[in-house]
Design a protein that fits this description.
The protein is mostly beta strands and 181 residues long. It is 10% helix and 57% strand. Strand 5 and strand 6 form a beta hairpin. The longest helix is centred in the first third of the chain and has 18 residues. It is elongated.
Length: 181
């Protein structure tokens, strides 16, 4: 039986194996390691939306791994490797038209993580750099779907993305030896 894995799943698995191998080294034993999953909410800055259309937020999946270095029991510096889907949605409900853009990103956010005392919750804020690996645009006009792969050479979309990263999460330690995960 041959198992087939997508490139994205292989990248996440290799990133997790790398981070776990780092934690086995004595000098990295004070680092926390974990897995992140969730959803992103994104949109674009539109300069020329056609009349009658409205921009909507788009949600997409997020998965990745993180490595953090605690400074206090509630405060840590954290870096992630994240695969996420971002994009935008523009729709005209009067004409039954929707334009949906999906972009797949590999991102590396770095920021400060604050654990909520007593509760298994945390907040995280920082900056990120992302690389768009692929994308497509779907135009749904009167129930007819047209899918167009995105060509980054024409300059309509940027391959590199920089911005702010905010997250709120639930932490669950699977290891009795975990200090900060």
């Amino acid at each position: 039986m041959i198992l087939k894995f997508s490139k994205m799943k292989i990248r996440v698995l290799l990133g997790l194996i790398f981070l776990l191998s780092l934690c086995s080294l004595n000098s990295f034993s004070q680092f926390g390691v974990g897995v992140r999953t969730g959803y992103t909410v994104s949109s674009f800055n539109f300069h020329d939306i056609p009349d009658g259309y409205k921009a909507r937020l788009k949600t997409g999946p997020l998965r990745g791994v993180y490595l953090n270095k605690p400074f206090f029991p509630f405060l840590a510096l954290q870096a992630d490797f994240i695969l996420s889907e971002k994009g935008a949605r523009i729709e005209n409900t009067n004409l039954n038209n929707i334009i949906l853009t999906n972009l797949d990103y590999m991102s590396i956010p770095v920021g400060i993580r604050v654990n909520v005392p007593i509760l298994p919750l945390y907040a995280y804020a920082g900056v990120y750099a992302g690389l768009c690996t692929s994308g497509f645009r779907e135009e749904i006009i009167n129930d007819t779907i047209t899918r167009i792969n995105i060509n980054f050479k024409d300059g309509e979309y940027k391959r590199l993305d920089f911005g702010y990263h905010f997250a709120v999460g639930y932490r669950k330690s699977l290891s009795p030896f975990s200090l900060f995960a």
